[in-house]
Amino acid sequence: MDSLPDWNDLRVFLAVARQGTISLAGERLGIEHSTVSRRIDRLEADLGVVLFDRRRTGYSLTDAGQALIPHAERMESALLEAVEESAGLGVRVKGTVRVGSPEGVGIHLIAPGLTKLRREHPELQVQLIPQPQYPSLVAREVDILITLDPPEVGRYKVARLTEVDYSIYCSPGYRDSHPPIHQLSDLAEHSFVDYIHDGSLSGFFRVLEELTPHPNRSFTSTSVLAQREAAAAGMGLVALSPFVADLSDDLVCVFPGQSLVTRTLWITAPEDLLRLKRTRVVWDFIREMIEARPELFRRAG
């Protein structure tokens, strides 16, 4: 290798590694896919190695490509830190941080809480993506991810936020017009509101199937808030955390005071991004807000 590789080529390399195709990488970077391909070819020629296995379905990293990732990400992180410092952002908190989270947590806890964060850091913008199909940290679709899944393996900072209890709820009208429920085996006689399980959803949302093996679903949705509304309208039983169930008083708990299933809520972010002050500020804000209110997530006995 006669010269050091161009940083822009390494930036394109990271985008392709994260997005999986040159077209998606080009869209993310705002450049033509032909330019992406040309820069990857040049980087491979400069380094004297093949970085990607090119297939019809996309680009996958070779061993040499995998080995280059941590070095390129350290360079990316160092550049971002340098930009922060040179722009005087070591004191100010400025820029955009993208956060992925479960729907209920994002909409009804994080979003309202951002008012306080905005007052403290008016130049900081948080982009919130609350949905059950989590965006990808690998592809850098978000900077911080809150999930029910165990943390991803990789160069990530991971912290446990809280335990989340689930129980069964229904509307008072449904309870009064259907067979009584005294134990879990009685659930087999009832209809349920649940997630759409089409393979795109994390298995950690399959709470209902842990309580009754073959639930009779009368309504399904990718949205937990839509499920809550359907259950409140009398569509059937629904498995919810207290935080979502207690948004208003139109649902009753079938097993009062009992936690039937417990999950763990995690927060994860790439280590290099947490070296940026704006990411650390949002990370700390989310942790403090959720850890300070465990009663929202636990079903008291």
What does this structure look like?
With 301 residues, the chain is α/β, with parallel strands linked by helices. The chain folds into 3 domains: 7-86, Arc Repressor Mutant, subunit A; 95-161 and 265-291, D-Maltodextrin-Binding Protein, domain 2 (3-Layer(aba) Sandwich); 163-263, D-Maltodextrin-Binding Protein, domain 2 (3-Layer(aba) Sandwich), CATH 3.40.190. The chain contains 10 helices and 11 strands. Strands 3, 4, 5, 6, 7, 8, 9, 10 and 11 form a 9-stranded mixed β-sheet that branches. A two-stranded antiparallel ribbon has the order 1-2. Helix 1 (7-19) crosses helix 3 (33-47). The radius of gyration is 23 Å and the shape is elongated. The chain starts with 6 loop residues before the first helix and ends in a 10-residue tail after the last helix.
Notable characteristics:
single chain, alpha/beta, Arc Repressor Mutant, subunit A, D-Maltodextrin-Binding Protein, domain 2, 3 domains, nine-stranded mixed β-sheet, 22% strand
